[in-house]
Amino acid sequence: MRTYLFTKILDPNFFSLYKNMFGCPVCNKPFSRKYSVKGHILTVHEKQRPYPCDICPKKLSTKSSLKRHKTVIHENRKPYACDSCNKKFATKYVLKRHKINKHLFEVVENRPTENKRFRFCDNRVTFRIKPIPENMSSLVWFNKVFEGILQYFKKTYSPGDNDMVGLTIHNSAFPDRDAFISMRRHKDLDVETVIKTISNVCQSNTSFNITGDLDVCYKQIKM
Ligand SMILES: [Zn+2]
Ligand SMILES: [Zn+2]
Ligand SMILES: [Zn+2]
Description:
alpha+beta; 5-stranded antiparallel β-sheet; binds zinc ion
């Protein structure tokens, strides 16, 4: 430590470098201009946001963050739209990453059959599962696929808190048996249950591969 300080002080640039510096009295961060210290104290320590947006109620801490806010939020400079969900992105790269992570399958066919009298609905959907993206482990992928499928059903058919739901999953990978998940309250139908059921069904199947079309029936009883 002593050697370090000594060599530092022997360095002729050491003092000239710090001679004209202004330190923040709160955190000691050095600044080359006095007004920078002032701005730093206002935004970081007093958490002031002196730059109001003239379009919305948001206030920003610096001129540059206000500018960024206006381009992204108000000028909507996000020219890359996802063709699956319409979400917009500022760069091609971010859109690509979104598509890889969020859209692991597409809906090929959707055939709801409703029995209004018994408040019962069979929502049969065929999902076309895409290949595992590079750099994604098969376990993560498997989880994401079924999480996405469950989300799709719950979003599309928005069950009430007391509605009972169940699933039947059919794939050419397990032709002799459907994976069947019995009716339960919709909040009790989670991705862990689905994955456990599928792995039970596939235990005897050595060449399990979910890629391809997956027929899923989401059974719903409105309570
Ligand atoms: Zn400070
Ligand atoms: Zn704004
Ligand atoms: Zn999307």
